[in-house]
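Hi L.,

You mentioned the student needs an example of a multi-chain input paired with its predicted structure. This one should do, with 452 residues in total across all chains.
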Amino acid sequence: MSFLAFAWDWLKSPQQWQGQDSIQVRLLQHLGYTGVSLLIAALIALPLGLLIGHYRRGGFAVVNVTNIWRAVPTLGLLILVVVSFGLTFLSWLTPLVVLAIPPVLVNTYEGVAGVDPELKDAARGMGMTDWQLLWKVEVPVAIPLIMLGLRTAAIFVVATATIAAQPGFGGLGRYIIDGLASNNYGEVAGGAAVIVVLALVIQAVFVGLRRLAVPTGLRLQARSSR
Amino acid sequence: MQWSWIPQNWTIIWQYTLDNVLLGLLPPLIGLAISLPVGISCAATRWLYPPVLGLANAVYAIPTLAVFVVLIDYTGLGNLTVIIALTLLSLCVLIPSVVDGLRSVPEPVRQAATAMGFTQVRRMIRVELPLAVPVIIAGMRVAVVSSISLASLGYLIGVLSFGYFFIDGEQRDYPTEIYVGFALTVLLAILCDLLLVGARALLTPWARGRRTAASAITATPVVTEA
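Structure written out for the whole complex:
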């Protein structure tokens, strides 16, 4: 029997959809971990990226620090926090926020710092203040890259929230960890299938969001330059 | 932190370091071997890249643990499963960077090479690929660092790596072991990252002293709106 057959058998059994361990409950937990972590990471990384990009200072450090930052083993960090502080909300939040910061920070910085200098000169010539320059010129032009950073972060977090189940948190990873522990491949396959679908849905949502967020002017320009 | 634990457990530390090096480096290297021909074909034809990129983005969204689960059914609970899964993930980073690297070669350079009598194959090997090296190495840095970090997840399906220190440290409530695993992961990643930066310097002698712009944007699979 293949992966899909195992997953399907597990998914269609009614007991997966009832009670404390049901798919709905686990899905909501998983989305909760993802949403809160992403929000906090964005609150930290977006302003920082805008600041560094706008003043174009410290960009070299951002690029190199974030590259090494990626090396932080999320599983190790998660277990370290759990062993130190116990099973509190901080223990799932910390590693997921740490994971989500680099893509948002680097892309925001690169997006803003990469705005055409002539465009900025023109904006200043029109009498824009720093604040207006940031919000009316730099952010709109950088939006495609910023959205890409947020999407990458969201994908990382939704995928990695899976391992929160290892030290005893909820979320969809429960099925994989519990299934592996009890040699129940049906549960493992079913859980994995739900996570894969969720990850693809999140990906699609962000592709849609990006379409909404990119200013019409940029889209027209992209089309005409092709 | 109990420092005496390190010399007492030197044998397993060395053994799991070797295992983690294998799991961290083999997938990006296999990934590079696959990405070069695929990327060259994608850069050469207009229609091939959008579907390949879409597929790469979709695969990238799938949690590593879920990829393991799908593969277990075919390749069992072993090294091969982890290597295949991490290779798939590194392809998602490497194919776009090969394509972006090749597309960053200025058209006049290509035309000059043709005018000097280079055949297509020779032009690719002697001119285009060397000029694409900075972008390809940027992709390799992301792929290698992530593989080293993700290899620890292999221990969740029983494959030995630094993950052993995390899970064993958790079960015995022994933070020292987790610190060691954490530090080794980050150190190994920094070492490999430096080696790649060195390789870039060796392969692009003409760029010495100049800052390369290919740092972050290619660090994540970039979606050019298809």
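You could point out the following to them. Chain A has one domain: 3-224. The CA atoms of residues 35 and 128 of chain A lie 35 Å apart.

Best wishes,
N.
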